[in-house]
Specification:
By secondary structure, this protein is α/β, with parallel strands linked by helices. The chain folds into 2 domains: about 70-190, 3-Layer(aba) Sandwich (Rossmann fold); about 195-290, Orthogonal Bundle (Arc Repressor Mutant, subunit A). The chain is built from 9 helices and 13 strands. The protein has a 5-stranded parallel beta sheet with strand order 2-1-3-6-7, with helices on both faces. A 4-stranded antiparallel beta sheet has the order 8-9-10-11, with helices on one face. Helix 3 packs parallel to helix 4. The longest helix is centred in the first third of the chain and has 24 residues, at about 40-60.
Length: about 290
Amino acid sequence: MVAGADPRAGRFESGTGEAGRSGPPALATSGGGPGRWLPGAQRERRRLKFVVSLVARVGQGNRAMPPARQTVLVVEDEASIAETITYALRTEGFAPVWKTTGRDALAALAAEPVALVVLDVGLPDGSGFDVCRKIRARHEVPVIFLTARSAEVDRIVGLELGADDYLAKPFSPRELTARVRAVLRRASAAAKPPAAAGPWQHDDARCRISYRGQALDLTRNEYRLLATLVAAPGRVFSRDQLMQAAWDDPGAALDRTVDAHVKSVRAKLRSAAPESDPIVTHRGLGYSLREET
């Protein structure tokens, strides 16, 4: 032991023979330099290292599992384009599956759940439009067309066949992934169950209202008018408020037009439930929906 060192205190002593001085321990330098750890400081350092490692292990044990990646089926016969797409999707947290033909794509859809399909129009074994028709007949999965055809008629055909979006080549991988996320958000919102309030069921995505389990056959303005009432049972709406909610050009409609539509809706409600009269008339004020449980 070096003269003047106190191992119980963990005191650092200079190698020059000077009297020991208390203070924080220092790391030993290479080559037998002037400083070194004494036994008390070594024990403290080992204790600190153990505590740090224990905290790290506890943190790893409490860490939440990462969310499952959504599978995106990429149907593209050109390898360079497909590699770009799959790389971009994987970087954004998706799990891409690449197929080069329509036949393989349909088989993949039948084999495992897929969140979205990126579908090229020009495929070796046929048209992507035909593949889309088959997908729509068997599956409810969003489809984004990816093609070199940028003419308006091609976009219209793709969208009319049921595609959710259309992206022309050349394209930006970042734009593609952004469109994938946007389509998935819309699909998720549409998949939410219809809102139910007592005897009413309103499927906003399908523009459909049911009363006591019976779907109502409504015109556009009748649907909008009734949807306004269903959204706030008990609230009294003036004729002007109903016109603003239900008519594209409220200024062209008359107060009596609202009355005529309410009468028509009441007739359809009586067909669904003859014993009920859920729309209440407030003389000089407007209409409300009866609060029912």
